[in-house]
Specification:
Belongs to the WD repeat SEC13 family. One of its GO terms (molecular function) is structural molecule activity. This is Protein SEC13 homolog. Pfam families: WD40. It is a single chain. The chain is mostly beta strands and 139 residues long. The protein has no helices and twelve strands. The strands form three sheets. The chain has a five-stranded antiparallel β-sheet, with no helix packed on it. The chain is globular, with a radius of gyration of 16 Å.
């Protein structure tokens, strides 16, 4: 597991790398986006057998990448959402259960994984509305 070595790993051009003996070594190639990846956020999960990454892209998609060490340790991906415009940034809450996403549409959305494993938008703030308006979505 690599939870303690996040600073020694990077995701560049869809390639997950790790530092080994002072050199960068390709660990795995993550394919899924069709344009530039604008941001990558590692989900906090110290002590858990699951690693999770969110990637935001010029292709208007946010993808969630998950690696479960208990079932073979292969990275799997799911498209969180295809937005109407470029997605610039993703950031996990300190507990790792909520993902904030922002993009060129001037909105910030908060996402949470349901008990069934589906990602659900739990809140949306639209900067385009006067003063910004929070529109919670209850599921």
């Amino acid at each position: 597991m690599w939870y303690g070595t996040l600073l020694m790993r990077c995701l560049l051009y869809g390639v997950l790398c790790r530092e080994e003996n002072g050199e960068w070594v390709m660990e795995e190639k993550l394919e899924g986006h069709s344009d530039w990846v604008r941001d990558v956020a590692w989900c906090p999960g110290i002590g858990l057998p699951i690693s999770r990454i969110a990637s935001c892209s010029q292709d208007c998609k946010v993808m969630i990448w998950t690696k479960d060490e208990t079932v073979g340790g292969k990275w799997n991906s799911v498209v969180l959402k295809t937005f109407s415009d470029v997605v610039w940034h993703g950031s996990w809450s300190i507990t790792g259960d909520i993902l904030a996403v922002s993009g060129a549409d001037n909105k910030v959305t908060l996402w949470k994984e349901s008990m069934e494993g589906a990602w659900v938008c739990v809140s949306e703030v639209d900067k385009g509305q006067e003063g910004g308006t929070q529109q919670p979505q209850i599921s």
